[in-house]
Amino acid sequence: MGEPERDERARRWRLVLGGAAAGGLEGADARMDAALAALYDGGGERGAGLGGSAPRVARWLGDIREFFPSTVVQVMQQDAIERLDLTRLLLEPEMLEAVEPDVHLVGTLLSLNRLMPERARESARAVVRRVVAQLEARLARRTRAAVTGALDRSARTHRPRRAADIDWHRTIRANLKNYLPDRGTLVPSRLVGYGRRRQAVQREVVLCVDQSGSMAASVVYSSVFGAVLASMRSLRTSLVVFDTAVVDLTEQLTDPVDVLFGTQLGGGTDINRAIAYCQGLITRPADTIFLLISDLYEGGVREEMLRRVAAMTAAGVQVIVLLALSDEGTPQYDHDNAAALAAMGVPAFACTPDAFPDLMAAAIERRSYDQIPMASRGS
């Protein structure tokens, strides 16, 4: 190893170890070490580099955005909120203007929604709107395409008008008895085709979202997906959020930012009460997809909650439980309730946002979810 390589390795170790090991760093390296020390030095206590003023924190945020990529900045911001108790400073407009917005920051802002002074509220909405716009750009187009394709495939006809409308796989399976071995051909006496796209509502979708504090990321993604689904004329979409109270946000689905600021993260959980409300929204059980997005920690009446789910499935409602709708990996959830739901044929699993369009397509076509990549499955 040459001298330049040794110097670079020593530089990196000084930055990793910090403290006394960082002696001799200069210029940008010294500033980078100071930014790391402000957050991670001190054994978990408040670092000396931040203190309690919003301007100083804003400068620190500017430094870490200069030295680190956005994915690292987001991790450091979340660590700062948790380790250094910076929640109060998020109420300051100058602080909000300096942060790198992400889903976790939106969750923190929503938990502070009722505490925000008016001067910080518009800055917070601007941060939330930036994140929502990023999520819509990433997810909306694929969701619409997956749902539209599934609706078209789920509509069958035995009188397709064009060759392009014929579902050849189903047609071949339906006519296997008409195979002529001597000619090596199959006579399709019955055609199976895709139905023409209809403008009327074909499915009802009810999103029932747990807004307890542990479900913050799921609330954000659910609001975005709810708005996307509500924009499709072939679906009738409802969005209900709950803790111990139930709030119907369907009328606000035209703007997911309004939806998010209509939530109140934290509090208890009464799943039974929320399901009872959602039952009243369902008008066509056989054509309804009910998505309960919850970690299943029930603070209400468990037995009645399970009876309501059983009644919905018996009526023909397609019930799906998402233990989380986020990128955060395997969630914490109530295993007993998940097992009880699975025993009655209700799937319960965590779903990543990127897998959600495929999940909706499978639900519309009533296909198995086994081929969809999920974070984890309930048991």
Automatic annotation (TrEMBL):
This is VWA domain-containing protein. It holds the Pfam family VWA_CoxE. SUPFAM superfamilies: vWA-like. It comes from Microbispora corallina.
